[in-house]
């Protein structure tokens, strides 16, 4: 018969006052956790029978292996998650199981062979410890002295290592291990494998361990001789360890006035904790601090961040188990985070945190929110947390919420935190100073309410969550109704101004308290779906998922709301979707700082990705329609209202989700919400309401882009994705296509994004199989033309590719599109793009085949291209003259017009390189006289100095001289003065002279031009002029080089004089001239003795 005692029992019994359930048979009695320490129990009851005391001790040891796992493994999933066997729990479990730790009796009962037990200990001295005899192959016993458990754990020999024995000692009190020691010497946050093995053995086979009374009780039964023998044996057994301590204690006892004699009794480590001792699990605080410090010092590595995240998960696991060490470990980690030297460095350098570090600080703040919202925290605990939060917040290195120390100057009266960033610790202080025990929703913001919900779940109170959703949703709905009515009264005034200064002070998405993305693995509690309705399962989506939590696709059901009206169809499921849409559609200001802005984007995308996986039924579609309509009419409280603030977060990603969800069921509403969300006011030149009828879609990009929006590029990409989705969906519907096109032209100003939209539209309009959609093709062409207009002034590296694509798109549209594009080329292309890409592509044979053109159409297209080419040549003759000549080859009139443009341009400054290129083209075309004329014009613009023998135009000069030599003596005589005037480089002049002294090859095909085959002499005109110029150039160059010559260039100078002598010798009296020249050098530069010595050795 089992009796539960709920009143104080008579003397001699321990009953319900200590939470104990006793029975007539003490061995079969069960016991719950005693809430009071053993000394307090002994004070309350004058006599406690030994069987009852043993049952108290029996039930005072932890009974849940998960608790042992929590303190010996980083994983919150238990031993199954640590499959590598490297964590202490797995190693201890393996030591317990694989080495054969079951007692012989248990093994025999299970039909197993008696295994070799891995625990061994030395026989006790006296009766201070109890022994458990096993089979001959097992350990002799495990000692269980009252609130103390000890034993020797043996690790078998492995891979050449000898067998090792470790002494393990465990103290416990009220189902918690309060201290552990092991001779292995391993220091870590978690218990070692040997402590795990001994603890699991005590849990699994507790009945095999005999319980003993405290050592003080055993000593009280000894007489003087026995006590002296016991002490002497103890000192003899451990004389090297305890002899100094024993001598000191003996001296103190012999002194009558010593402190030890003034106290009654003596301490007993096996008797349990004292009245004032804390009852908590053993946690090595020093190791926590050291490991966090080491991991923070390696913060740049992925492994360090992952381990710190695992430690945060361990704190959450402790909170969920309602373990006081959760707040204790979090405090230690926070202290070490505040001592991170990088904080001071970042503040001194005015730079922001790294992303990994900021994520860790976010998790730290989220955990403190859960801690301070513990519904069963004591007042003294709350006071202590409040003091800690205030102390940390006052530290200069305390990071801001947005993670950026750069801020504008502000007065000392202003708070340190800028408007865009709020400390999570500030929220914790506000939560602590508020009325925590009040369950009323009045006066509380939505983030605070949902933070309380997350705290309840984090502290292991899932069933209490069922009281929260319905009142909260009702309160939110009523607030939205009040806001909507207030907006309707102010709507006319706001629309006239075209702007609003009203915005939600705290948006739910990416709020510091994380109301929508409360950390935790939501779908791990899917079994509680009737109690934890979908509302909380949805809003517990983790923004930084725990790596050990595996998300499984849930099965959603409609759980009716008890207070809903009949046949209304309202369920927790529909309520969850409604509030999710409300939170995503809030108009909220973009925060300051890169990390805070990035968090806004990631939070929104994470929640939308969850919503996108929900299958929509009729009830959910009705909710989505109703909520979308409310958002469109929501005014300044909605991000989809008619007027939004310039700095409000865009709704592109959210609108894309609504568009794809509503399009199959309500296209009108889908397009309405998507078109409304296309705006991006932050990039506009001024805040105004766009009117599609009056605004010009081709206005240039505004220059005053908001500098603090670090994620602007990402937002513009999402805007482009929304536009692309609408374009693809509107295929085959001219009305919506033109509406979407107008919206794109009004709101998107980035050329790269417009080009991508044009490509997407063209690809969707031309499927591999099936006819093209001409309306969508025209939209793609129009977008491409807009890209060309925008980038015409500020050229980009990808324009050439864009031009090719545009010509290809115009070809798909038809011949008329190509002609219109060429006729208006000056608004779209540069002259070189028009002649080298557009005209060439339009007149190619491949284009004619694609369009199926006849001869008349080809001529019309060619004439348009030639006209464009001539216009380009006039505008930019240097780059476009040659392409224009090439295009006009087959049309004599056009070719002559292009040639005349070249001649006119040569007189107005066309460069010699372009003239030489065109001249070579003319020679190639069989027009040498025109080539000669252009080469002469080029020489008039050329200047090669005395030391430019490697000038890039040297080859062109040699070619022009060869051409004039081939044409005849008259042309050669005409070009000699031009060469002498343009070229002052002696080696180049001498090279030209030698070429001219050879027989001329002549040119065929020119009437009256025949080759005489005679060599021209240098003593007659026109070569005598050339020889004189060459000799003069060598003399001038020699004097110029001798002015600043160095000894290392002497050899090069001697070779130069050798080439000069060859030129001098081409004259009839060249030998005498060169001799006089050398003698003049010797007299003039006689100071350069070494150089002149080399000259005499070479030239005499």
From TrEMBL:
<feature type="domain" description="SWIM-type">
    <location>
        <begin position="166"/>
        <end position="203"/>
    </location>
</feature>
<dbReference type="GO" id="GO:0008270">
    <property type="term" value="F:zinc ion binding"/>
</dbReference>
<dbReference type="Pfam" id="PF21055">
    <property type="entry name" value="ZSWIM4-8_C"/>
</dbReference>
<protein>
    <submittedName>
        <fullName>Zinc finger SWIM-type containing 4</fullName>
    </submittedName>
</protein>
<keyword id="KW-0862">Zinc</keyword>
<dbReference type="InterPro" id="IPR048370">
    <property type="entry name" value="ZSWIM4-8_C"/>
</dbReference>
<feature type="region of interest" description="Disordered">
    <location>
        <begin position="403"/>
        <end position="427"/>
    </location>
</feature>
<dbReference type="GO" id="GO:0031462">
    <property type="term" value="C:Cul2-RING ubiquitin ligase complex"/>
</dbReference>
<dbReference type="InterPro" id="IPR007527">
    <property type="entry name" value="Znf_SWIM"/>
</dbReference>
<keyword id="KW-0863">Zinc-finger</keyword>
<keyword id="KW-0479">Metal-binding</keyword>
